[in-house]
Fold each of these.
Amino acid sequence: MQLTEKHHEYWRKNLVITAILFFVWFVFTFVEIWFARELNSSMTFLGFPLAFYFSAQGSLAIYVALIGIYALLMKKLDKEYGVDEGDLE
Amino acid sequence: MSTPAFSQSTFNRNLKKYYTFYTGGFLIFLFALAAAEQMGMSRAWIGYWFLFATIGLYAGIGWMTRTTDVAEYYVAGRRVPSFFNGMATGADWMSAASFIGMAGTLFLSGYDGLAWVMGWTGGFCLVALFLAPYLRKFGQFTIPDFLAERYGGNIVRFMGVICAITCSFVYVVAQIYGVGLIVSRMTGLEFGVGVFVGLAGILVCAMLGGMKAVTWTQVAQYIVLIIAYMTPVVWLGVKHTGIPVPQFAYGYTLQKLGDVEKKITADPKEQEVRKIFADRAAAGRAALATPDKSYAEGKAKVEQNLASLKAANAPAEKIAEAEKAVVAYPANVNAAQVQWRREAGLAARAAPPRPHAQAFPGADEKAQNTARLNFIGIVFCMMFGTAALPHILMRYYTTPSVQEARTSVFWSLVCIFLLYFTAPCLAVLAKFDMYTNLVGSSFASLPAWASAWAKVDPSLLSIVDINKDGIVQLAEIVIGGDLIVLATPEIAGLPYVVSGLVAAGGLAAALSTADGLLLTIANALAHDFYYKLIDPTATTGRRVFLSKALLVCAAITAAYVTSLKPGDILFLVGAAFSLGASSFFPCLVMGIFWKRASKWGAIVGMAAGLGICVYYMVTRYPFFGINMPLWFGLSPVSAGMFGLPVSMITIYIVSWLTPAPSKEVQELVEHVRYPNLVGDTMVTEGR
């Protein structure tokens, strides 16, 4: 079938959301690890050295949040562009 | 029953009711056993109760959910609500290694162990962003199904089948090994018998009801394993931090641990023990340098010692001791070299404790940077491997809709997060407890748990008074990682019923993962290989029957391989992830996000990724005996770090060099990108 301009816009927005969340994921994974020594010696949070905190807890919580945000944003986007699956219940 | 007899919402309500009853029932069972223990039930019987009650329960769920319907068998009828699918994925995901081994790894390697924690959680972001919703929209039965539709042709499907079976089989061997270990520990049955008791539980469940049975059993197993993991941690937390959610408060325990570590480093008695080890290691190294000479000298020395004692009419026990030394002296140079190598290895125990929170320890800047690169390598491969393991991706075929698939990834990670953010906490609390209560105690009055475990299995815990001062020094303790989770209930001073619960939790973790993996293997063979490649006219009844038969074959083969006790299991697990990341991830994701990705691009790309990954492992991993120099010092477990980019670039280049995919394939890509397209006539969902 032929996709309309609206469909393309939906896909572009999807890509933007995906890219932003992917970037945040990247920062809290690889950038955090790269600077772990500096972060550890810079400050403590709740008693933890900072890099230890992120690797053991903070980044994990951010991963959970990222996936939650993605699900919510996409649900809204689906509705907005009329590509949602309707009420399934 | 391929069409639900009642609506999805009634179904959801009933599910909640069943599992609430189930959880309540499980708690009552726990309290009953605790009461029975107080009244004098023996430890062995508590072990049997846990073993047979939990396996019986899983088998019961398997029996109640038996099915011969194709959609029910392969994808649980596609009506698993997101929250329950999340719990099932959590149990599917967390293996014996996560449940029993993770906290131990963190205990032993501190910050560096967190690579596994990050790697095994962050991968779900990739699953959510790049795969789950699109695979759900496509909605067939297996991962090779998608590759075959998207890239067209049997070669791609065949390669997909090979990759899926390789990753899953390597992984399932590790799980069955865990099952055997736990069952034999829980009940005192032999390892081999333990393997088969556990296997029977897996088979009843997976064989009768396929994905449907596996899903509902995994939900039950998740509940058992999370209760089992949390109970001792909460107690230990109250003991050391004063609050029942120690996950948020152990930062201060970590600081106190740092002080204890400094004290131990400076303690003269500790230094004395470390010096003894350093000397023994140096002597071993020196002997290894000139083996023949050292062997002759050493032999002459023990013999001379005996002769001079006899000549001097020394007391009988001294002579007996010297005689023993002569007998114990290695029979030849080769045997002596083995012994010297062991002695030289003691150098590791001559080092002071490494600060728990320190990132990337190393002698100089270069060594530290290599440690960082290896940390990144593990995180990278585990994450991209997560997003490529077929038994996990398959779970997202089972939700009722694309939207539910997205929320389901969220619930999956929530369920996994609960355990993974507790493991580092458990490691710190157990370490602090051990460094303050065990270290410095006297050998005459060791804590009961320490002497008990040292007796059970010296590879888990051994304490020897090296400097003969009657006091336990840290350097005198050797700990096996698995001890931490298994012994925590006793360290925290909990009744034995909690130890039984922890073992039951470990069993649930191993069984649930093995279930999912065996099902993946059987489905790849029955659905992709037999039905799609050999006999496309096979009836549905025949396909399901064949899948069940192959499941039994796969289970028995895996049990057989396990009974051979193949070496380094952690390496095998890591290798499975690297292989998955190099072979599946690039062509799955590019197939969805890049319409131009062509058939030959995918074939050559998969082969190139897999090839470079296998090449690096074979030529670098010591087991194969080639030992070429490492690239950038990166360990062979992280070979996926080379495999994945090579595969992506290859797919890109070869796709441009070969014809674009047909119009139908391009429409398929559009079809999976939109949860619901008005006017779209394409139906890919398998029924």
Amino acid sequence: MSTVSFWSSLKEEARKNYIAIFEQEWPTWLAGIFLALVALLIFLWQGPWGVAAGYRNVGDWIFYFGGVGEDRPYSPLLHPITLTSGGLLIGAFVSALMSRQFKLHKAPPLEYVKSAIGGVFMGAGAVLAAGCNVGGFYTAAAMLDFGGVAMMAGLIIGAWIGLRYLLWELEHVTQKGVEQHPPAEKWLGVQPYLGGTVMILVIAAFYLYSAYDNTELGGLLFFGFLIGLIMHRSRFCFVRAFRCPFMTGDAEMVKVVAMSLVIYGMGAAVIKWAWIQEPSMGVTHNFWMGSLFGGAIFGVGMLIAGGCASSTLWRIGEGQTKMVVTLIAFAITNSLLARILKSYDLYDKMGDGLFIPDTLTWYVTVPIFIVFFVFWAFVAIWNEKSEKLVIF
Amino acid sequence: MDLENLAPFSVLDARGLTCPMPLLKTKKELKGVPEGEILEIWGTDPGSKNDIPHWGDKGDNSFLGFVDEDEGYTRYFIRKG
């Protein structure tokens, strides 16, 4: 019998787990389950998970510093959604460091222009739909708001139009590749330690918030951090669910998002039906005009920018410089358009949240919800084989 | 397979481009490659490490493998089928 000390077996196990968690990529279906669970925790902890309002908060500050906004915007450190979104970015940053993948990526010049234009489209679409791919679609659908389904239709239309543009660009514009800096060996070795330090700081921030009677906000930062980790480790991209059926026919992300939504939606149904949270919570989307048209505009933007509201954040976390441009353009446009619409009283004309169980009753809503998203997945699976919807 | 000694029909430089551009360009470029010939793709997007092998093996085409270069990019090889 060999003598294995307690510590050496612990060390061996820790090493194996580190590789499994931080070096091997997570399967997207697993990430889809994790994402739904964390989103449900956020719903129980505070309220529906969103991202775009964090961008707007950043945009409000940009205008405030530019001397345009008269009222001092909400502090990002006390804004629930800015905190979750900031946590998402930090989580992805930590994940990239822990897996030694953090690297500043340079893109060809045209890509920065596209990042800005895509950000403008997404910022505008998110105002009309009262949310982005997360708050306006993923969460809105799970909160059983018809607006989520209308935005989904808009995102599909927008993705189709956006892909058409990319194909046009492919035929008419030639771009050369850009050389990247090779990663320095020393820096690669330091990354996991830096990542570990940042992770400890996030946990410390939770306790600090808690010490100042803001446990709720500290929790949101931490949940956002978990989402960033999950998304980066699996390269979780909502855009793929809308783009790939038209581009390669690949159905994987449709299956994952549909499954994730069934878990998230049914979990939310339990929470709402049991009155653990107010049933009408999160039913605030602009059904149907705002959601549909906003979704379409957002869909075009996410194709051009190459990232949605959530994947823009995690891609910044791994060092994609062009996504910083998207973030700024998204934030400014979102803040500006919201001001314009509100000052002309147009915002309320975009539609209202409509709670699905109010129309269809709880008894019908639950099975219909499941059948709807399973059907979406099956259309994608059929298309993967037949390529009927592939336009390239 | 010895990837270093392959003689590709053409080389696509997609360094610095991010998802979905490397895959779109690969799909377009491969249309001009004769059957049995090889397309080499240079990429830097971490997402390409899943996308290109996965897509490159679909249908009659075969994905031959990739090589990480010291200069910080990856070379992918697809044989048109």
